[in-house]
Amino acid sequence: MQWKGESAVNPRKCRRPSLRLWGVLCLAVILLVGLHPGQAAAEPKGKVPSKFINVAHRGASGHAPENTIAAFDLAVKMKADYFEVDVQRSKDGRLVIMHDTSVDRTTDGTGEIRDLTLAQLKQLDAGSWFSPAYAGERVPTLEEVLDRYRGKGIKILIELKDPARYPGIERQVAKALAKRNLDKRDKVVVQSFDLKSIQRFHRWLPRVPIGVLLSKGDYQETGVTNAHLRSFAVYADYVNPDKDLVNADLVQRVHRHGMKILPYTIRDQSAANLLFAAGVDGFITDFPELGYPPYHP
Ligand code: G3P
Ligand code: CA
Questions:
Q1: 181: left (phi over 0), alpha (psi -120 to 50) or beta
Q2: Is the pLDDT of residue 160 over 60?
Q3: 3-class secondary structure, 26
Q4: Residue pair 55/284 in contact by the 8 Å Cβ criterion
Q5: What is the mean pLDDT of residues 204-227?
Q6: pTM above 0.70, yes or no
Q7: Which of 26, 80, 120, 282 could form a disulfide with 288 if both were Cys (CB 3.0 to 4.6 A apart)?
């Protein structure tokens, strides 16, 4: 079994074998390298394609309170490729990381995020609702998160959450990224369900990869058509649908349109296995160990 971080082949082992052995080794290399995620179902159980993109949803939120430093630190420890964050804005204009538009579910406070200042948000306990072990976790700002994890070997999938509530948030996020030299490929991905908002963001920072989030409610009846995919491909690099919209046909069509597919939200091994078999490029999960079996908490 090949764990994340190990290369498929140690090139030193290809040195100076007999001609016949060389041939056998190189054929094995070609077969190994030629495998792609779509063939994962034929691989031994538990084997995950080496290029699989494992995204910790709101951090490792199955193990620690979502959208907190504890959950992001754990995603790093679990060697996820990305962690996902939801960005909204406080009353005094600061970008903060929370999923719901109100603080009620995930803190000891009440009220809408947009009606609370950053100082008020920072007083809230964002950990106790999950477990007393996380009492005192605070609501992070986007800037704190970008500064803490830049250069730490993990990328960040940034969701503009309900951006229609926060006019101008696209430019504000773009400025925060550009200030830190993160306005290029391979540093962050920015995604949203709001396609107009994500296109606005794309105009500010065209080099940053874009993800389109697709909800089951919006696409269940029509399915995700090739016309949809053609329109996304104009500006997006990733199509990130609800896992229930995904099958091998959709994966192939997304690939044919030149994009990758990262379904959400994976919470058990059987859902993970279905997606491996469908050939997805990665997935967004509360439990990063589902993407990388070697991690044992
Ligand atoms: O990243 C995908 C996922 O986060 C989208 O749904 O509601 O968890 O933000 P939600
Ligand atoms: Ca999200």
A1: left
A2: yes
A3: helix
A4: yes
A5: 97
A6: yes
A7: 80
What is the tens place of the pLDDT at every residue in 110-139?
999 999 999 999 999 999 999 999 999 999
In angstroms, the CA 212 to CA 233 distance is 10
Nearest ligand to residue 87 Cα = 2
**Contact (Cβ atoms closer than 8 angstroms) between residue 71 and residue 150:** no
**Probe target for ligand 1 pocket from 159, 160, 215, 262, with the most ligand atoms within 8 Å of CB:** 159
The closest alpha carbon to 124, from 144, 151, 111, belongs to 111
Atom of ligand 1 nearest to the CA of 58: 4
Return the H-helix or E-strand segment holding 6: none
Tokens 């995603």 sit on residue: 75
88-107 pLDDT, tens digit per residue, is 999 999 999 999 999 999 99
More confident residue, 16 or 126: 126
* Neighbouring C-alpha atoms within 13 Å toward the C-beta of 202: 19
Choose the catalytic residue: 57, 63, 202, 228. Answer: 57
| Bond prior to 265 in cis (omega within 30° of 0) | yes
DSSP conformational letter for 53: E
Q: What is the overall mean pLDDT for the chain?
A: 85
